Amino acid sequence: MENIALIESFSEFKDDKLIDRVTLMVILEDVFRNALKKKYGSDDNFDIIINPDKGDMEIWRNRVVVADGEVEDPNSEISLSDARKIEPDFEVGEDVSEEVKLIDLGRRAILALRQNLISKIHEHDNTNLYKQFKDLIGDIYTAEVHHVRPKMVVLMDDDGNEIVLPKDKQIPNDFFKKGENVRGIIENVELKGNKPQIIMSRTSPLFLEKLFEQEIPEVFDGLINVKKVVRIPGEKAKVAVDSYDDRIDPVGACVGMKGARIHGIVRELGNENIDVINYTTNTQLYITRALSPAKVSSVKIDEENKKAEVFLKIEEVSKAIGRNGQNIKLASQLTGYELDVIREGIVEEEDDVELREFTDEIDEWIIEEFEKIGLDTARSIIDQDVQDLVRRTDLEEETILDVIRILKEELEG
Q1: Transcription factor NusA first KH domain location, by residue (predicted)?
Q2: In CATH, which of 3.30.230.10, 3.30.300.20, 3.40.50.2000, 3.30.565.10 is domain 204-277?
Q3: For residues 33 and 47, what is the distance between their CA atoms, to the nearest angstrom?
Q4: Overall pTM surpassing 0.70 (yes/no)
């Protein structure tokens, strides 16, 4: 009964660790055989009988009866006198099977056995967990917020598995509360000691690609192919899509009527601005589309150096560059070309002055803010609406007015 009671207490791990009973029994036999080896030197002459259905087990020690005083190996041989204490009619040469009780192993051995079992089950769980989540790398996964820490959010899935969402894998304006569900992709599984650490990401371009698969039926069905995704997480993204069926408008299908289809994805990503463009093998056309919403006049390709000069009218330059240079940066990443914006059709006014000429009066970082939106001369700034400049730059209205005053004094003085 001691064996059965111990098995039943051990089988509690089955529920805690989500390990099936048969696997538990295999681990148990291995653990008991190790205990027998330590006590008797070998487990060769022991039978361990495990019944996975009932959850009980028996350990039998098999020895050969020898004459009294002729026992050479106590583990495999038993004297006739000792054998007859078990059954009185044993004779020399016969096999004796004697049940081993747990108490025979000793208290310390039983405690060590239990620790060994715990270790083996943890090892089994960790191996299975590692394999399970290795197969899920690149897939969208949902888990619940368990702890919010300064450098990470610790999530828990329905099976009680811990998943880590590091700070640098979070969208900048993400805000999490305990108990809410969070979606991301399984980006990696790392072994920390013997324990797997599951890493989730919400900033990966693959997360946006998988959201397209999940939210847009034509992408899921393979009718629309997502060719490439580039992102500045939480700010802006560009997605190039293509269709194998000429009857399908890939951009229209992804965006949906009045943006209905893409709205859920935008909301999931913290209102990230997503440009969806038609992919093409025509490099000039691809670059033109990538710089949307700007209207490109022409493109000059340097194929050898993977560079392109993009010619735009002055009013389109700021759109092409985008806030903080985001639009041109993503267009470059999407197309694989270094893009250089060239303003066209401008007759240089004699009294216009390059903005860099004012470095003695205007701070460098302020000049850079104007250059980010394509304004690099005095008149290009003076001709702009002040409120529009406030909206498109990180500058205060007072700063912009001060810059305009300095520029006007130079041009009109």
Answers
A1: 202-279
A2: 3.30.300.20
A3: 9
A4: no
- b/e sequence 121-135, b meaning 16+ C-beta within 10 Å: beebbeeebbeebee
* Distance from C-alpha of 210 to C-alpha of 404, rounded to nearest angstrom: 47
Strands 224-232 and 195-201: unpaired
- Return the domain boundaries, the chain: 2-131, 136-201, 204-277, 280-346, 355-412
Question: Is the pLDDT assigned to residue 305 strictly greater than 60?
Answer: yes
Length of the chain, in residues: 413
Residue 18 has pLDDT above 70, yes or no: no
- What value does the mean pLDDT take over residues 345-363? 72
Burial (0-12, 13-18, 19+ Cβ within 10 Å), 25:
buried
| CB contact at 8 A, 113 and 35 | yes
pLDDT-derived band at 92, boundaries 50, 70, 90 = confident
Instruction: Report the topology of domain 280-346.
Output: GMP Synthetase; Chain A, domain 3 (3.30.300)
